[in-house]
Structures are given as structure tokens and as C-alpha cells.
Amino acid sequence: MPLVSLKNTITLAMSVRDRHASAEWYAAKLGFELIHHIDEAGWSEMLTNVDGVTLGLGEQAEASPGNCVPVFEVADIVDARRKLEAAGVEFDGETDTIEGMVSTATFYDPDRNALMLAQDLTGQG
Question: What is the reported pTM?
């Protein structure tokens, strides 16, 4: 039995130099649809043609090609993180929260590949 119950969604997060230009590229070349640009967070999301899979574009001064971070949605990030840490999983810093939007926490597999947990906070008041 797994330690954490994941939802049926995944976001593939990539670093890009210009989120708006990248979103246009993915729309024109692959037919992805823009979900939203969150300018204050330097983040954009696109709906892919694969059910439950979105593409997240994180704006960086210098993009890191090949650095794709799978982001797994969970219902309760505090509980999921506690269980994974208790099992020896290493996290990178504290859980980040943008109130009313999302909480995220980066962690590593045994080969130090980065993965992320995310809890959607948009429906919470």
C-alpha cells in the first residue's frame, strides 16, 4: 500500500525564459490550451491533449533544459509530506504556499531526481 494517495493528475513543470512566448509555442506547435498565467508567481499552465496531464512553465532568467519536474497533486500536502519524510524521503526546504492558490513541496527520489507534491488551494476559503 502506498504511503501517499495521489490524485489522477500530473503537471510536468519545466523552466523557460519567457512563459508567454513558450505558451504561444506550445499552443501553435502542439495544440496545448492555456489554462492561466499567474504573473505574480512566474508560472503558467497549459492543458495538454492527455487526460489529467498539464504542462507547467516556470519562468527563470536562465532556463535549465532537460530539467522537467513531475508535480503530483495530493489532497493534503501536510499529511503527504509527513508520511514521506517519516519514510526517509528527502525534501528540498519548506513547503511553499501562495495563499488561495497552491502549496508545493519538492522532494527527491534515490537518484536525486526532483519531484513535487502540490495541493490546490483555489477552492478553499
Answer: 0.78
